[in-house]
Amino acid sequence: GCLGYSLRADLKGMLKNMKKILITGINGFIGTHLLEALCRDGKWEVQGFDLRSDNLGPFMDHPNFKFTAGDIFKDGKWLEEQVGSSDIVLPLAGIAKPAYYLQKPIWTFELDFEQNLKMVRLCSKYKKRIIFPSTSEVYGMSGDSSLKEDESPLITGPINKMRWIYSCSKQMMDRLIFAYGQEEGLSFTLFRPFNWVGPRLDTFRDASENKARSVTQMIYNVLNSGKISLVNGGEQRRSFTWVGDGIEGLAAIIENKDNKAEGQIFNIGNPDNNYSIRELAEMLIDEMKKFPVYREKAEKAELEIISADAYYGKTYDDMQNRLPSVEKMETLLGWKPRTGMRELLNRTISWYADRENLD
Q1: What is the pTM of this model?
Q2: What does the pLDDT read at residue 99?
Q3: pLDDT digit string (tens) for 88-122?
C-alpha cells in the first residue's frame, strides 16, 4: 500500500517535471513510430489525439502516454486547452496518400491546410513551439538534381492535375509558419519526410482499394493478383528511407540541442536509396522470396505496365525524381540515414509476413 502510494507520488512528481508534447494524428504511420521512440526515451509526457486508436494498443498503458479520441474538425476547444498546456505541438493529422488527393481534393485541403492552420495560430497565441510535417512533395517538379531546403525552387503542375493540391496545401502552410515566425516570433521547425517505409505504413485494406503507398501496395498485389502495376513503366525515381532512421532525425529536431533546429526546414531522407519504382518492384519481389509464407507467390510475380490515366484517372501528374540533400541535418543536428534499401524492404516485409497473409 504505502510503497505503491510513494511510487505513484514519485511518478506524479516526475511527470510534473516532464515536458509535454501534443501529437495529433498519432494513430498514423509516423505518429505510432514517434510515440514508440518517445515512450522508450522516457523524457516526454505525450498527449495523443486521433479519430482512432487501433495502432496504439502496445502504448495505452505506458505511464507517460495519454490518448484522447476526437475529430480535429470538431474538437477545437479541447485542442486549444491542450496547446495551452503543452511545450511542443506536432500536428501530424493529414492526408498523405496520392489516391486520396485525387478522390477527395477538397477534404485534403481542409484537413492538411485549414485544420492545421488552426493549430499554427494556437501555437502562436500561446507561444508554443510547433514542429510541422511538410513533405518532399512540395519540391514537385523542381529541376534540381539534389533538393535543398533553402535553395531549390518548388514547382508544381497545372491546375487541372489534382495531384498537386496536397503539395500546395503543405507549401502554403510552410510559408505561413515562416511568416508567423517572422512577424509574431513563432518558434518552429519544419521537416520533410522522403518516402519513409516500415511497419504500419498502410493496411492491406487500403491496398485492396488501390489506396496504399508503393511498398504496401506492391506486397499486396504480389499476394492478391500476382502482378505489380508499374504506372507509366515505373521509371520515376524516389529516395526511400527506413522509418527508424526518419524517427531518429525527428527526435533530434524535438531535442533541439543548442537551439540549432529553431526556424529551420530539414529534409529527412536517404539519398543513397534513390531507385526507380521498377527497381523497387524488382527488389521487393526478390526480398519476398526469402519469406516462406510469401515465397511461392513472389516466385510467380510479374510486372505489368499501366498508364497513369488507367490507374489513377486523368487528374494525376508525377515528378520524375526526388533526391534529397541531407547535408543540413548532418551539419546542424548530426543526423545521417543508416539503413540500406534491401534491409529496409526486408524489415518491412518481415512485419507484414508476421501479420498479413491473404490465404
Answers
A1: 0.92
A2: 73
A3: 999 999 887 777 777 889 999 999 999 999 999 99
Estimate to the nearest angstrom the gap between the alpha carbon of 83 and the chain centroid: 21
Active site residue 330: no
Cα angle 227-278-239, degrees, rounded to a multiple of 5: 130
Enclosing H/E stretch for 66: strand 65-69
Alpha helices by DSSP H, 85-163: 98-103, 105-109, 116-125
Which one of 45, 129, 137, 192 is the catalytic residue? 137
Identify whether the C-beta of residue 230 lies closer than 8 Å to the C-beta of residue 310.
no
Break the chain down into helix, strand, coil percent, rounded to 5. 50, 15, 35
Q: What are the grid coordinates assigned to 353, written together?
A: 509476413
> Do residues 28 and 56 make contact, with C-beta atoms less than 8 angstroms apart?
no
303, burial (CB in 10 Å: exposed 0-12, middle 13-18, buried 19+) = middle
Active site residue 342: no
Residue 54: how many other CB atoms lie within 10 Å: 8
What DSSP element (H or E) covers 3? helix 2-17
Residue 197, helix vs strand vs coil: strand
The catalytic residue among 163, 192, 238, 322 is 322
- DSSP secondary structure code for residue 254 in this structure: H
Cell numbers that stand for 328 in this block? 543540413
Residues 6+ apart with CB under 8 A from 47: 20, 21, 22, 23, 66, 68, 82, 86
Structural contact between residues 222 and 282, judged by C-beta atoms closer than 8 angstroms: no
